[in-house]
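Exercise 7.
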Amino acid sequence: MSEKIAAVFDGKVFYPTEPIALPALTRVRITVEILPPEEQESVSFLMAARSLKLQGSPNWAANIDKYS
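Solution. The predicted structure, written as tokens, is:
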């Protein structure tokens, strides 16, 4: 089976730009095709941050001084 998936590389990890219907820990083979600048979509910081699926206290922003 073969499927094209768009992703963003953050310097360490590739993040898909859309949900992928694969079970966790499924092994895949990745072929990288670097898109020319005119075909690249911009990715907002918020989209990138949401894709990380970070877990934490809902009051992070209210208590930012406690975490730094």
